[in-house]
Amino acid sequence: MSEVTISQEGDIELELDAGFLFYRSKDTPHIYATRHPARVVNGKPVLLAGTPVTLEQLADIAEIAGSKTSYRGFVHERVIYIGPNKLAWWLPAGQRCVWFKTNDAIGERAGVTNHPPLLFIVERGEWSVFALREDARPSASTHLYNAPYYNVWKDGLICTGNVEIPERIDMECIKPFEDAFFRSRFTHPNNDRLIHRRGGAVRLWLDLLDGAEFPLDRLIDAKKTLAEAIGKTSDED
Contact 51/19 with Cβ under 8 angstroms? Predict the structure, then answer.
């Protein structure tokens, strides 16, 4: 269990005040909450009879928690979605350097190549990448395509290996995550089919390393929208 430290400014004494109980249904996402005054009786904390929590009280709690846990500041121009411990942004098509160290025909090679527009999603403990067919800011209903990169699984998850990635998820982590992805060594495909073309991913990257344009029409449909990938419905866009 992680250690929790409570700190405060000044010499202030804290006293037990109240507790909250949450009731959850197994079949629906609904939650019922009650607030209970708390007292210390014979050295033990005791919850007294409670009352239903109002929306105003929940808003107060959310405001206090949000001031400590949520991002506040200017939003990066390429951010698509931001939530508690989750961030999604897009990267326009362009030329970037990549490094390979493989056991196939690519071998150990590096160079500047053309890349498709990409969508990155990071959340606590994992990060993923998808490709886009249009070089424009995506919306919730935009269809995603498999990112045809080595070290990326079929579901978009990126194999981190020994790459150092940011611990915090906020606006400042976008460039470090992109650097971690493109500056890592691509070593092996984690997906049997990364691209619709003869010769597969090996031929794709050999051509790209020789200066070819990226074949957007050869991308494989990931069979999900941006909203589905980040676990949100389209009407929340």
Answer: no
Which of 110, 190, 112, 200 minimizes the C-alpha distance to 158? 190
Task: Give the three-state DSSP class for 174.
Answer: helix
- The residue whose two tokens read 């980040």 is 230
- Residue where the block lists tokens 């050295």: 43
Q: Assign 61 to helix, strand or coil.
A: helix
User: What whole-number distance in Å separates Cα of residue 135 and Cα of residue 145?
Assistant: 13
Helix (H, G, I), strand (E, B) or coil at 221: strand
Task: Judge if pTM exceeds 0.85.
Answer: no
Burial class (CB in 10 A: 0-12, 13-18, 19+), 206: middle
Q: Chain-wide mean pLDDT for the chain? A: 87
What's the pLDDT tens digit per position in 98-143?
Answer: 999 999 999 999 999 999 999 999 998 789 999 999 999 999 999 9
